[in-house]
């Protein structure tokens, strides 16, 4: 029974951008690493649809633990029908704009899934193909040099050439280009696919056979209008013992899967594309590749195992119908015991052969290691010599620069001493300027008071002059005296005017001095704390200012006496009049 499938979706209630479909069958030892690689994605706008294809090792329970922790995961259970059926089931449930198929014993490293999606949407791509890395698990005695060589050749197909990467092409052009570079990869797990492309084309995985990717990927390339390949190795493929593709007793199943893929591609090509079209040429090329795979697998079955009526036919024709395949399957199984005994004897011989070659390889390896170490030591010696020469040159340059810096240091010290001496002189001048400024300010205030008093005297003198003019005819003596007094007052007035002009000139000078004082006031505030130490000296200056103020007062008292005498004279003249 299927469990309800949670639908995380996007925060705005829409469908997720990416649907990750994971078919699972008895892969518990590898499943957590697979699911962890998806759960670690910081990109949240995805759904992860896990299809448990009848596992009996607790794989479904492992998935449930992820479903409970992460709302992006969901689990669907079904009876065992194979990876193709599980992928087709996940495809029918997917709601994302793009679909990604992930095998449960592999893992991904999508650091830039958001960047891939941006690329796919910006370029309106039907699929984005990326590179992969191959990890071969230890097969023990079952693994041989031929296996390793085969995996090494296969690993080349997981690389994207630099001149192909990041170039938008049609699906057919991309497929032909990768085939020419021997980098064509049929895995559905190394591509991000636009769901609309799959829905419109109706492409599904053929169920119940191996090599399902041969049909699915070739058909997908044929219908893809725009494809981009990137060089990043986002996918990690694990070759492990016991997997469907590495099992040694399913040769007939491999043949059946290849024949099915070839038949489906032929039907797909005839139904969709015209003869001579680029799509048809590509699919024909893929069918020729599949025929080569059929011939490769058929070499493991001797002609003695085949039915007599099929011995004279070509190998491909012998496997062209299911009846012949079943006959081959029965013949193959009937000879399995004899083959097993032969394999055991060959395995013992092979182990002895490997042991001898292992010893020989070890000696060769040690000799190569000694040579490598010797070459490395010689190379290191040459490198050290070069580094020594470079170090000496750097040392000489450093010594020369040190002498230059010493000369600069002496000049800098001389400049510093001159600056310090000038600073002390400026500080002394500043103190003197401040004392002069304070005295000038006080003198300005005093002169302003004197000027006001002088103006009052002038006004009184003018009034007195008018009064004296009125009495001039009555008393000539008073007039003469008044005229004399007037002349004296005029002299005083001229002196007063001179004082006034000097005061105005002083005021303008003081204004300029005030502007200069304001300019240094900010600096004076910063040095206020230092000036507090000079308060005692300032107190002496204050006493001098007080003495000056007393002198001014004495002058004012003398002027008052003069004005008193003038008033007395004026009073006497009035009385006489």
How are the SSEs ordered, and which strands pair?
Elements (H helix, E strand, L loop, with lengths): L17 E7 L3 H12 L6 E8 L5 H11 L3 E6 L4 H11 L4 E4 L5 E2 L4 H10 L4 E10 L8 H12 L14 H10 L10 E4 H7 L10 H12 L3 E13 L11 H22 L5 H21 L16 H4 L3 H13 L1 H135 L5 H51 L1 H5 L2 H42 L1
Parallel strand pairs: 1-2, 1-4, 2-3, 6-8
Antiparallel strand pairs: 4-7, 5-8, 6-7
Helix pairs in contact: 1-2, 6-8, 8-9, 8-10, 9-10, 13-14, 13-16
How would you portray this structure in words?
- The protein is of the alpha/beta class.
- Helices cover 66% and strands 9% of the residues.
- It has 16 helices and 8 strands.
- An 8-stranded mixed β-sheet has the order 3-2-1-4-7-6-8-5, sandwiched between helices.
- The longest helix is centred in the last third of the chain and has 135 residues, at 336-470.
- Residues 1-12 and 302-322 have low confidence and may be disordered.
Unreliable stretches, pLDDT < 50, 5 or more residues? 1-12, 302-322
Order of helices and strands: EHEHEHEEHEHHEHHEHHHHHHHH
Terminal Cα span: 144 Å
Strand content: 5-15%
Q: List how many beta strands DSSP finds.
A: 8
How much helix is in the residues?
A: 55-70%
- The radius of gyration is 54 Å
For the sheet with most strands, the description reads: 8 strands, mixed
* C-alpha geometry: elongated
